[in-house]
């Protein structure tokens, strides 16, 4: 193509400048990805996405299994605690009934003792009454004797 313009130096110079300008503009285009490059990158990214998806699905399944395991452990613990609660309830009911029995025994024993004390006091009161009556009768006899003696002396 230079041969066509070699007669005219001015045209050759312009042509040279145009070619230089085109080359300078084409140089940055060398860094531009081609359709093939984009297809390779697309496939690589799709592969990476699929691998990540599979990895995440695997992790999700592992976490689900762990959750189910924890749920099972929680359920076992709940059942164990319920059993322990029932055992404590039964134990407390037995102890309550035992204490009630003991309280009833103490109540009956106290009633018996109170009745014995009451009977003892009644007996003692009767004895004191009899003693007081004896003293009063004795004093009345003595007083009557003194009064009779005083009347006999005064006459």
Description:
With 155 residues, the protein is mostly helical. It has one domain. It is 94% helix and 0% strand. The protein is built from three helices and no strands. It is rod-shaped and about 205 Å long. The model has no long low-confidence stretch (mean pLDDT 89).
Main β sheet profile: none
Classify the secondary structure makeup into a structural class.
mainly alpha
Q: What's the helix-strand series?
A: HHH
Query: How helix-rich are the residues, as a percent range?
Result: over 70%
Overall number of domains: 1
What is Rg?
Answer: 63 Å
Average of the residue pLDDT scores: 89
* Number of helices, counting only DSSP H or I runs of 4 residues or more: 3
How many DSSP E strands? 0
Give the overall shape, derived from the CA principal axes: rod-shaped
Span between termini? 197 Å
Low-confidence stretches: none
Strand content: under 5%
Keywords:
3 helices, 0% strand, mainly alpha, 155 residues
What's the layout of helices and strands?
Blueprint: H1 2-5, H2 9-29, H3 35-154
Brief write-up:
By secondary structure, this protein is mostly helical. It has helices at 2-5, 9-29, 35-154. The longest helix is centred in the middle third of the chain and has 120 residues, at 35-154.
């Amino acid at each position: 193509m230079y041969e066509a313009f070699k007669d005219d130096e001015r045209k050759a110079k312009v042509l040279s400048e145009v070619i230089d300008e085109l080359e300078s503009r084409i140089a940055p285009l060398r860094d531009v990805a081609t359709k093939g490059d984009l297809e390779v990158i697309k496939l690589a990214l799709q592969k990476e996405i699929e691998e990540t998806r599979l990895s995440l699905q695997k992790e999700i399944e592992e976490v689900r299994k762990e959750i189910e395991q924890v749920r099972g452990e929680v359920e076992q613990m709940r059942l164990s605690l319920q059993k322990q609660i029932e055992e404590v309830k039964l134990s407390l009911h037995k102890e309550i009934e035992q204490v009630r029995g003991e309280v009833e025994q103490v109540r009956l024993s106290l009633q018996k003792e109170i009745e014995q004390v009451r009977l003892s006091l009644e007996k003692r009161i009767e004895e004191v009454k009899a003693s007081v009556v004896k003293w009063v009768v004795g004093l009345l006899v003595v007083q009557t004797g003194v009064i009779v003696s005083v009347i006999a002396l005064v006459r």
